[in-house]
Structure formats: structure tokens, C-alpha cells
């Protein structure tokens, strides 16, 4: 490295401001200044769960309690001085310093909504100083040998508690795994989305950019529309269905007996299952439709139900990816612990959930070392920031989920992946799914 380049790599200033995420809620944006310029990153937002790194909010009357002025102030009072003069070429050192400054396991002092955008902005600065694209800089930090552009899981129908239809699951997605390139995958997803729009009446677009179909009565009706669209597009064996079950929306916790799941919670008539019954129902759906993956199909504490489901899949010779998020929440230690139980074979990786870029890389590598697939995932309250696209390529994730194609904070990440693919240095696809 030349002397000037080395001098330019040192952090000169770090500032922060409050900006708005895609839901109109405050979040933190950070700018890191080096000799190479000013580098900016914003933190996506979502309600912090019990395991993930904690995002700080003020909790006062401003912005309905969601303002982040305390988190913004932490950048000047706690982060700036220890990081000034540190080289952005050493991502792990920067992230270790952030963890040391905070002193807690979940960034309860700084806030993950400070730690992550500082980490990401430094990563951007490091890439600029190294004169390489961001994904290559991340690949070096992750020791990735061969980078790939991931298969997009694209939302085509959304349900769950916030959608006014009968679909109990949070999201039905398509995955064009048989495409020859990411460009073709985006084209397929766009055309299928439009085809489904023509078939059904829609009730608007959700905060994840998916469409809300109405007029369908049961889960099979929704799946049949997607399945028929795949058939009409001559994409059998090249495109499959992925389901975000998000079972926390319909589980009824029981203190003294087994949990119940109500797939009819959005209807006048309830439809209760216990865990094993729900597992058997999922098996029937997988046998009937080209389903590639399920996310959080059961409550995070129902290990026995997950184990039963795995046995039923093996008994029926069904290959499907079972992703968990509520169990692991992008935490390296939780991924390691759950992987040892061998009850699932994948997890979601949400980088800001991990707290820093290094933590996210380590969480991803822990998952893949266990033989899992790691699905790089956006957040509900996202921003136009495209760091996630570069992260997915840098760690060579085979899969990414950013939402649907009808909100710009979602398509910004798709567009960035299109740009990355143009360099000609990355491959496309999830080869295991292609072989399946």
C-alpha cells in the first residue's frame, strides 16, 4: 500500500443524524470521513427481539417514542474519539473496538442502530481505500474464495396480521433458481408478479413491497395460483415456492399443555392444529406444490415438533430447506447451538441484527460450516442503502430475500445486484436447488 493511501485510510471524523426508514420511522445514518472522502451507511429498523443486538430509541413523546437522538449522540460522545486515527483497512479491529466501547453482548449501551451503520460506513471507506468494489472488500474480510450472486426470493403474495386477506402465512415467494443469471431471475420474477396481478384482485402493497391478493379462501388456493403461474411460464423445475410461515403470528402458547396453532386466525371459523398436526399439514403441502423452503414453521421453543417434522420429511423423501430466524436471530452462538441439534438446515442472516459487519460475517460462516444454507435477509423498516447486496455477494450467499418489486427500498438492492453481476466476476445460483 502506498504511503498516501495508507494515510488516507485513517478515520478523520464520524458524524450521525436521524433519518427515516421505509415505514417513516426514525433510524440512524452515519458518515465516516477519511482521506478518500465521506462514506455513508444507514441502519434498517425493526422491533428488537430478545436475542438480537438492541436498537436504542428515546421512548419519549417525539416521533411517537421512536426517535433516536440518544443513539445519534452516542456517536459523538462514545464512538468518535476511540475510532479517530484507526485504519478502515482493518474491519475486524474496528468492530472489536465497537464491541469494547459498548461492553455488552447485545450493544445495549451504544445501540446496534449505532454500531452497525458505523461498521458498515467504515467498510465502505475500506473498500474505497483499497480501490475495490465493496463486495470484494467484504469477501476479503470473510475469506471468501469464490463469490456468487444470490437467487432472489421474491414476494408475490403477502398475508399475515397486517394484510386484509385470509392468508395466515406472512409471505409467499418465488425463487427462480434455474435462471442462467441474476438478470434473468429478476425478469422471471417481474413477469410472474405481473401475471399474478392479472389473475387476482389486489388490496394494495405491503411495507415489504409484496402484493395483497383478496378473494381466495384457503392456503391451497394461494399456492395453486402460484403453481399454475409457474406452469404457464414453462418454469417447472426452474422456479419454486418459498413460504415465510412466521408461526409466531398464529401460535397460541399454552402453559400447561401443548401449544396450538390457529391457521384460521384471520377468518370467522378457527382452524386449530397442535405442532405434529401442523407438521403433517406442511408435509402435504410440500407433496402437492413445488415448495423449496419454509421459514419459522413452528414456535422457536418447540424443538420436539421440529424434530418430528424432520423425521416426516425424511420418511417421505422430501427435500426442503427449513430456515429459522426466531431461534437464532443472526447470533453466532445461537446458530452453533441450534446446528448441533440437527433439527433444521438453514437460518436467516440480517446483518444489523448481528450488530457489526464482522459479527454478521461470523454468523454466516458458522451457519455454512454446519452445512446450513444462510439466507441473507432485509428488514421490514429498510432504507435505500444497498450494503445488503454487497454483503450477500461478499460472503457468497446463495440466497437473498429483500421483499417484492413494488417498493424502491427493495428494488434498490435488486438493482445493485444487477450492477454487480455486470462485472463478470461472479456466478449465479443455488446449485443444490438446481440439482434437486
Q: Would you write up a description of this structure?
A:
- The protein is of the alpha/beta class and 436 residues long.
- It contains 15 helices and 18 strands.
- The strands form 5 sheets. It has an 8-stranded mixed barrel, surrounded by 6 helices.
- α4 (112-130) crosses α5 and α10 runs parallel beside α12.
- The protein is globular.
- The N and C termini lie far apart (46 Å).
- The mean pLDDT is 95.
Binned strand content: 15-25%
Counting DSSP H or I runs of 4 or more residues, the number of helices is 15
Shape: globular
Spatially, the strands of the biggest sheet line up as 5-6-9-13-14-15-16-17
Helix content: 25-40%
Secondary-structure content class:
alpha/beta
- Assembly annotation: single chain
Family: Belongs to the enolase family.
Keywords: Glycolysis, Lyase, Magnesium, Metal-binding
Domain Enolase N-terminal: 11-138
Pathway: Carbohydrate degradation; glycolysis; pyruvate from D-glyceraldehyde 3-phosphate: step 4/5
Amino acid at each position: 500500500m502506498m504511503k498516501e493511501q495508507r494515510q488516507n485510510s485513517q478515520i478523520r471524523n464520524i458524524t450521525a443524524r436521524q433519518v427515516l426508514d421505509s415505514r417513516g420511522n426514525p433510524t440512524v445514518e452515519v458518515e465516516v470521513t477519511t482521506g478518500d472522502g465521506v462514506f455513508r451507511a444507514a441502519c434498517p429498523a425493526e422491533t428488537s427481539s430478545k436475542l438480537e443486538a438492541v436498537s436504542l430509541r428515546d421512548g419519549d413523546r417525539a416521533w411517537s417514542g421512536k426517535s433516536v437522538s440518544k443513539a445519534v449522540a452516542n456517536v459523538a460522545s462514545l464512538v468518535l474519539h476511540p475510532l479517530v486515527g484507526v485504519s478502515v483497512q482493518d474491519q475486524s479491529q474496528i468492530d472489536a473496538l465497537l464491541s469494547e466501547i459498548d461492553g455488552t453482548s447485545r450493544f445495549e449501551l451504544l445501540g446496534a442502530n449505532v454500531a452497525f451503520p458505523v461498521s458498515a460506513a467504515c467498510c465502505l471507506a475500506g473498500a474505497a481505500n483499497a480501490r475495490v468494489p465493496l463486495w470484494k472488500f467484504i469477501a476479503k474480510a470473510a475469506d471468501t474464495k469464490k463469490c456468487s450472486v444470490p437467487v432472489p426470493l421474491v414476494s408475490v403474495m403477502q398475508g399475515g396480521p397486517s394484510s386484509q386477506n385470509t392468508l395466515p402465512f406472512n409471505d409467499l415467494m418465488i425463487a427462480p433458481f434455474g435462471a442462467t443469471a441474476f438478470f434473468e431471475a429478476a425478469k422471471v420474477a417481474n413477469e410472474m408478479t405481473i401475471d399474478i396481478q392479472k389473475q387476482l384482485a389486489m388490496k394494495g402493497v405491503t411495507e415489504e413491497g409484496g402484493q395483497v391478493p383478496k378473494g381466495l379462501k384457503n392456503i391451497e388456493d394461494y399456492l395453486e395460483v402460484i403453481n399454475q403461474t409457474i406452469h404457464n411460464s414453462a418454469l417447472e423445475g426452474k422456479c419454486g415456492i418459498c413460504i415465510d410461515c412466521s408461526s409466531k403470528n398464529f401460535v397460541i402458547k399454552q402453559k400447561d399443555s401443548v401449544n396450538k396453532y390457529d391457521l384460521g386466525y384471520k377468518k370467522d371459523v378457527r382452524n386449530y392444529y397442535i405442532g405434529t398436526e401442523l407438521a403433517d399439514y406442511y408435509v402435504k403441502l410440500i407433496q402437492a406444490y413445488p415448495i423449496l423452503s419454509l421459514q419459522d414453521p413452528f414456535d422457536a421453543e418447540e424443538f420436539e415438533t421440529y424434530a418430528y417434522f424432520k423425521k416426516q420429511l425424511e420418511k417421505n423423501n422430501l427435500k426442503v430447506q427449513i430456515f429459522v430466524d426466531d431461534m437464532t436471530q443472526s447470533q453466532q452462538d445461537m446458530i452453533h447451538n441450534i446446528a448441533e441439534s440437527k433439527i433444521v438446515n438453514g437460518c436467516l442472516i440480517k446483518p444489523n441484527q448481528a450488530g457489526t459487519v464482522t459479527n454478521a460475517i461470523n454468523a454466516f460462516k458458522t451457519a455454512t460450516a454446519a452445512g446450513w444454507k444462510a439466507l441473507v435477509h432485509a428488514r421490514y423498516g429498510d432504507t435505500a442503502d444497498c450494503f445488503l447486496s454487497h454483503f450477500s455477494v461478499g460472503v457468497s450467499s446463495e440466497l437473498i430475500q429483500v421483499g417484492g418489486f413494488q417498493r424502491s427500498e427493495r428494488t434498490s438492492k435488486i438493482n445493485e445486484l444487477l450492477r454487480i453481476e455486470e462485472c463478470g466476476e461472479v456466478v449465479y445460483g443455488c446449485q443444490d436447488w438446481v440439482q434437486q
